[in-house]
């Protein structure tokens, strides 16, 4: 089959000494940052963006992918050992994982998480080999109306469905779109929102915004709020790090079910891994309730296995949606989409035609990254927790220095440093008042696509907006959007009713 031949060629590129080094480096960085609560893979990718432009695109994206996957492996480590998940995607794993650790089964909990993430990621990567080219072929039938509907779908899902407050999510989204509009209008050539500053004619770089919001804003928040480090007692993780036959028998069905739940969410712009991990956890809890001796609440291995597999399955498929459709489903994927554009590449069907070496080397590197992450996490997960011994003031001071050096090195502009500080303060305020950051980033990345698609669709129909709702693909997308919105409203209403009762 063509895909297997292309994948073999991708492996030939991915396992070169140079690319193997970047796979390992990305996995190490991603795991290390994932262990640190409040940081996460999105911050790591944002910090790496300015310093990777000197690299060849293949090497850079292989490293980004390692960071993306490694962040998920690291996130669950602190959730299990300290009941403090690194990111929201690890919350579901924390419930039963920490109970296992408290019961003296921390090594088995870490092993369950590592194997589950490996299985979910490997299955997703295997499917990507066959699904990604098909998605790219399907997207060739997309016109301006379809891409506009796709962008709106992503906007609605990330700003209303997966946020606690739809109002805050929409305001964050509007801010991101507003930043994307700064600069010269590509159609009329007129400057927009530049306030007379010639430095803004080229717009504000996505690199500057992501570094400012995710890294500098977090540093300012931590410094002002005084929330250095993690509070709580770390569980000991001594003993066997492998699973017994009975434990494997117990976890295997949950790994399979979690993977099946996570896969579809990789191509749906629903905010990343948070929803599928909670769905997988909920499914296992309902199944456990039917057993003669329910284990949930006592450290059920299935309650940890399923969310871990679901999270990595979603992330793996998300890379396919990013490569084939140019659709980011999370903040980290949105930053990677911005990185593609910085290299002059546009994910989608043309990427498979114009840069097949990059695409297939990247797909092959996913498999390598899964193996590397299993090796460095299965027996050594507890060692990663030692990173918390780094004094927090030194850690965050180092992040600040990297923010400034990275932005100045990529642009050599003092004005970009002022923008970095200004947007960092905006990110601090958003963090302080609990405004979600992902809608802002996705709004900035997909805002130009939505604007261009809207203009092209209306102009091609002689000014008629009816073209936005004509055609089978468009109608299916708007229908899915309506279903997602109605489902979200019903779920939130049920949640409020449950709270009131």
Automatic annotation (TrEMBL):
Keywords: Membrane, Transmembrane, Transmembrane helix. Residues 20-442 form the DUF112 domain. The chain crosses the membrane at residues 20-39, 45-73, 109-135, 170-191, 203-224, 321-340, 360-380, 387-408, 414-430, 437-454, 466-491. It comes from the Bacteria. The keyword Transmembrane applies. The keyword Cell inner membrane does not apply. This is Putative tricarboxylic transport membrane protein. It comes from Helcobacillus massiliensis.
């Amino acid at each position: 089959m063509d895909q297997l031949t292309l994948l073999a060629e991708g492996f030939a590129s991915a396992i070169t000494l140079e690319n193997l080094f970047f796979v390992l480096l990305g996995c190490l960085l991603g795991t290390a940052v994932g262990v640190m609560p409040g940081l996460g893979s999105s911050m790591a990718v944002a910090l790496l963006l300015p310093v990777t432009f000197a690299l060849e695109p293949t090497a850079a994206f292989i490293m980004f992918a390692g960071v993306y996957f490694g962040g998920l492996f690291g996130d669950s480590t602190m959730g299990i050992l300290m009941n403090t998940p690194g990111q929201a995607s690890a919350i579901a794993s924390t419930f039963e994982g920490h109970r296992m650790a408290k019961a003296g089964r921390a090594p088995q909990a870490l092993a369950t998480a590592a194997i589950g993430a490996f299985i979910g990621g490997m299955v997703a990567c295997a499917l990507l080999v066959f699904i990604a080219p098909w998605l790219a072929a399907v997207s060739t039938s997309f016109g301006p109306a379809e891409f506009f509907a796709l962008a709106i779908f992503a906007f609605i899902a990330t700003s209303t469905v997966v946020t606690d407050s739809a109002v805050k999510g929409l305001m964050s989204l509007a801010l991101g779109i507003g930043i994307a509009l700064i600069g010269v209008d590509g159609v009329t050539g007129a400057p927009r929102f530049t306030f007379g500053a010639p430095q803004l004619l080229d717009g504000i770089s996505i690199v500057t915004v992501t570094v400012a919001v995710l890294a500098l804003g977090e540093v300012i928040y931590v410094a002002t709020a005084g929330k250095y480090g993690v509070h709580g007692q770390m569980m000991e993780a001594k003993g066997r790090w492998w699973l017994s036959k009975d434990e494997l028998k117990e976890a295997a069905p949950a790994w399979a079910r979690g993977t099946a739940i996570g896969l579809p969410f990789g191509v749906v712009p629903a905010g990343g891994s948070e929803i599928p991990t909670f769905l997988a956890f909920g499914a296992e809890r309902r199944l456990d309730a039917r057993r003669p001796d329910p284990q949930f609440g006592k450290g059920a291995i299935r309650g940890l296995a399923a969310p871990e597999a679901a999270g990595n399955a979603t992330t793996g498929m998300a890379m396919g949606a990013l490569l084939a459709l140019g659709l980011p489903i999370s903040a980290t994927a949105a930053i990677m989409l911005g990185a593609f554009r910085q290299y002059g590449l546009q994910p989608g069907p043309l990427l498979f035609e114009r840069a097949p070496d990059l695409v297939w080397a990247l797909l092959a590197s996913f498999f390598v990254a899964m193996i590397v992450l299993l090796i460095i996490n299965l027996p050594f997960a507890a060692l990663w927790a030692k990173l918390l011994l780094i004094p927090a003031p030194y850690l965050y001071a180092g992040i600040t220095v990297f923010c400034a050096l990275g932005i100045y090195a990529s642009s050599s502009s003092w004005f970009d440093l002022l923008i970095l500080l200004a947007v960092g303060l905006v990110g601090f305020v958003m963090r302080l008042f609990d405004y979600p950051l992902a809608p802002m980033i996705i709004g900035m990345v997909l805002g130009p696509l939505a604007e261009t698609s809207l203009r092209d669709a209306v102009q091609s129909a002689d000014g008629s907006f009816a073209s936005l709702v004509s055609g089978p693909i468009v109608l299916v997308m708007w229908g899915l959007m309506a279903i997602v919105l109605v489902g979200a409203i019903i779920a939130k209403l049920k949640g409020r009713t449950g709270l009131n009762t």
